[in-house]
Amino acid sequence: MGLPGRKTNGEGTGTPRRSRRTAAGELKRGLILEAARAVFESEGLDGASLRAIAAKAGYTPAALYFHFESKEAIYAEVLQASMARLGAAMTRRAARAKSPAERLRAAAMGFFDFYQKNPRDLDLGFYLFRGGMKPRGLGAERDRALNAALAALLEPIALAAEELGAGRAEAERLMVECFAHAAGLLLLAHTGRIRMFGASAPRLMASYLDEKLERLGTGPAGPA
Amino acid sequence: MGLPGRKTNGEGTGTPRRSRRTAAGELKRGLILEAARAVFESEGLDGASLRAIAAKAGYTPAALYFHFESKEAIYAEVLQASMARLGAAMTRRAARAKSPAERLRAAAMGFFDFYQKNPRDLDLGFYLFRGGMKPRGLGAERDRALNAALAALLEPIALAAEELGAGRAEAERLMVECFAHAAGLLLLAHTGRIRMFGASAPRLMASYLDEKLERLGTGPAGPA
Amino acid sequence: MGLPGRKTNGEGTGTPRRSRRTAAGELKRGLILEAARAVFESEGLDGASLRAIAAKAGYTPAALYFHFESKEAIYAEVLQASMARLGAAMTRRAARAKSPAERLRAAAMGFFDFYQKNPRDLDLGFYLFRGGMKPRGLGAERDRALNAALAALLEPIALAAEELGAGRAEAERLMVECFAHAAGLLLLAHTGRIRMFGASAPRLMASYLDEKLERLGTGPAGPA
Amino acid sequence: MGLPGRKTNGEGTGTPRRSRRTAAGELKRGLILEAARAVFESEGLDGASLRAIAAKAGYTPAALYFHFESKEAIYAEVLQASMARLGAAMTRRAARAKSPAERLRAAAMGFFDFYQKNPRDLDLGFYLFRGGMKPRGLGAERDRALNAALAALLEPIALAAEELGAGRAEAERLMVECFAHAAGLLLLAHTGRIRMFGASAPRLMASYLDEKLERLGTGPAGPA
DNA sequence: TATGAATGAGTATTCATTCAT
DNA sequence: TATGAATGAATACTCATTCAT
Description:
The structure is a homotetramer of 224-residue chains. Chain A is an all-alpha fold. Helix content of chain A is 73%, strand content 0%. Chain A contains 9 helices and no strands. Chain A is elongated. Chains C and D meet through α6, α7, α8 and α9 of C and α7, α8 and α9 of D. Chain A binds a DNA duplex (21 and 21 nucleotides) through α1 and α3.
C-alpha cells in the first residue's frame, strides 16, 4: 500500500516536470507562494514546514507536489518573489532621485531599508543564499539565477558611481562594498548585536554612504 | 585543528552536575567536541544532529548525555572553543603590532582573516548568534555570555581608536562598523557573491581599514 | 468485543482537523482502537505505547497520527468506547426493571457486573480517571467530558432513590456511596484481595444494596 | 566497552544475592529508602525514577544496585515501609479505644484516615498492589507477603466484630466490606470524583461505619 | 487536480541496567 | 562499596515525500 521513501527526485537538473501552462495553475501557484510567505512571516524559517504552508494555503501537503517539485523549490520561489519586491522598492525609490549621488544613495538605502523593515525577507535571503538547499544539483542552477537577479538589483549603484566619475572597476568595487556593509549591518541589527553597542543601524548605513560619496567627489581612492 | 581551546569551563556553565574532573573524562569530552566540529564541517549545521555527532564520535547518542547536558550545550561549547581560537589568533596578531594604528589593523584583520580561513567557524558563529538555539531558557544566559565574549574580543579595536584620538563614543562606533563590514564581506565571500564580482574580500577589508584610519588621522567625522 | 460503540464523535472532540468522513477511514480508526484495546489487554497499561499499538494494528507509528491527534487521544477514545459499552449494558439491564427498587439495583449491579466481567475496562477506567493523562491541556477538557459521562451513567441510581422517597441530597449521597462501594469491591476483586478472604464480590455488592434499600424503606438515615 | 542490556536478573526467585549483614549496610539501605519515599512524595510515581532516587540519596544510580536488586525492589520495600507506618498509625489509634465498637471504628477510620492524609502512600499502594511490578516471578512472592501484611493490619476489625457478637465468617465479611468501602471512597476522593458530587469522604466513611455498627447491634444480617 | 493514507527516517531525550575499575 | 562510563531500548512525535485513487 503505497511504497514510499524512495527519493527518486526527478531526472537530475531541476526543471519541474509539470506543464505549467494553464492560467488556473499559475493562479494556484501564486496562492501557495502567498501562503508560504505568510507562514515565513509568522512562524519563521523553522516553522515553515510543507505541512504548515499547505495548511495555510488550504491544501493537503501532497497537493503542493503537483505545483512544486519540493519544499526547497517553494523556498526558492518565495525568495525570488522577495527579491522582486526588493527590486520594486528600490525602483520606486530611485525614481525620486534626481542627481547621480541621490541615485546611489537611493539604491543603497533602498536595499538596506527593505531588509531592515522586512526581517523575514532577510532571514529568507540568508537561509537560501547559504547552504540551505539540500539537493545541490537543483541548487546550482537556481544559484546562478539568484546571483544574476542580485547583480541586476545592485547595478544602479555601480551606474551612479560611474556617473560620478568612477571607472567601471572602481564602480563595481564600490557597489560590492555597499552591499557588504549593508549586509553586515543588517546581520548585526537583526541579531541584536547592534543595539548591544548602542548604535543605530540605519544611521550607520547612511553615514557610511556619506563617507563614500565624499570620497568619490574628492577623487579616486587609487587602485585596490 | 583539534585543540578545543582553553574552555575555562567553571562550575556554572553547562556541564553535568557531578564533579567529573577526571583526566580521562575531559579527554573524552574533547573527543566528542572534536566529532561535533567534524560533523558541522561535513554535514553543515542542519545535519549536525546528536545522533550524527555521537556516531562520528563512536558513541551511542545516550552516552553523550553523560558528558553534556544537552545538544545545545554541545553546540555552545563548540562555539566557545571556536571563539577561544579566534581570540588566540587575534592576540597572536596583536602582539606583533607596535603602533595604535597597527593594533587597530591587527585586531580587525585578525578577526577577518580568522573567519576567512575557517569558514566553518563562520557558519557556527552565524548560526549560533542567531535564532538557532531554541530552548531560550538555556539560550538566554548563554547568549549574554557570548555577547560579552564577542565584545571583549572586539574591544582592542575601540581601544586603538581611542589611542588615535577618537572619543569613546566614536571609538565604539568605529568598532561596530569594522565588525559589520567584516561580517558583511565574510558573508558575501562565504557564499560566493564576492568572486562573482571579481573582487577580493581581504583586499576590500584592508582598504576599508585604510580609509577609516586615514579619516581618523584627518579628524573626527562629526557626531552620528 | 470489537464494536467501538456509538462514539458520537462530533467535531470538537479529538479527531484530526480534516473532514475525514469516509467509510474506510472510520473502519481503520476502528481497527486501530481495537488494536489499542488488545494491547491494553495483553501488555497492560504501561506497555501500551504508541509503537505497540501501531505494531498490533499493522501500522507504522506515524500512520496513527493520521487518524488520531495523539496517544492520549487514542487512550481517551478507547475509554469513551468502554464507557459507551458500560452505558449500553446498564441500559439493557434497566429496561427489565419494573419498580424503583429494581431500577436502583439494576443500575448499581449493572455498573458493578460490567466491570466485574470486563476487568480490562476497569483497568482502563482506573488508569485514565487518575493522573495517567499527562498533557493536562488536553486532559482537562477531556476530564470534564468523562466526569459528565460518568455522572450521567450513575444518575439513574439517584433518580431511583428519589422515587423511593429520598431527598435530592440523600439520593446523590447514596449514589456516590454505591459508586464507591462498587469501585472498592472491584479493586479488591481485581487484585485478588477478595478471594484471599474467601468472599464473593458480586454477593457482597448485592448485599450492600440490600442493606441500603432496606434502610431507604425504613426512613431517612438523618443528616450526614 | 561494557556490554549492557543483558537483563540476566538474578537466579529467578527474588532473594537478593547481597549478604546484608553489616550494620552500615542496613543503615545505607534505610537512607536510600528514605530518599525513595521523599521522591515519591514530591514527584509522584512517574517521577520516581532510579536516577531521581539515587540523586536524592546522594548516590550514583549504579550504587543502588549494590543495595537493591532492581527498581521494583525499592518500590516494594517502600510500600512495605508505608504499610508499616499505616500499621503504626492504626495501632496508635486502637490504643485509645475502650469498647469493641470503638476499636472497630478506630481500626477502620485509622486505615481510612492514614491514606486520606497521605495520598502518595495511596498511590504507592494502588500502583504496587496492581500490575506495576514487571518481573512477575519476583512479584509473586512479594505479593503473598503484602497480602499477609494487609490481612494482619485489617484483622483488628474482624476481631472487634467478633467481640460484638458476630461469627467468624460474618466478622471477616464485615472487615472486607469496610476495606472495600474505604478503598472505594479513597479512590474517588483521590481522583476528585467525590468533590464533584459535593460529598465529604471522611464523613461518608464514618456514616458507613455507623450503619454497620448499628446493624451489628441489631442482630446478624444473615448469611451472605 | 487533489486527497487520504501511509511510509521511513529522523528528532532529542530518558530509562533501568551493566561493567570495569 | 561506589563511581564513571556506556548501552540499547524506549518515548511520543514531526518531517518531506509517495502513491493509489
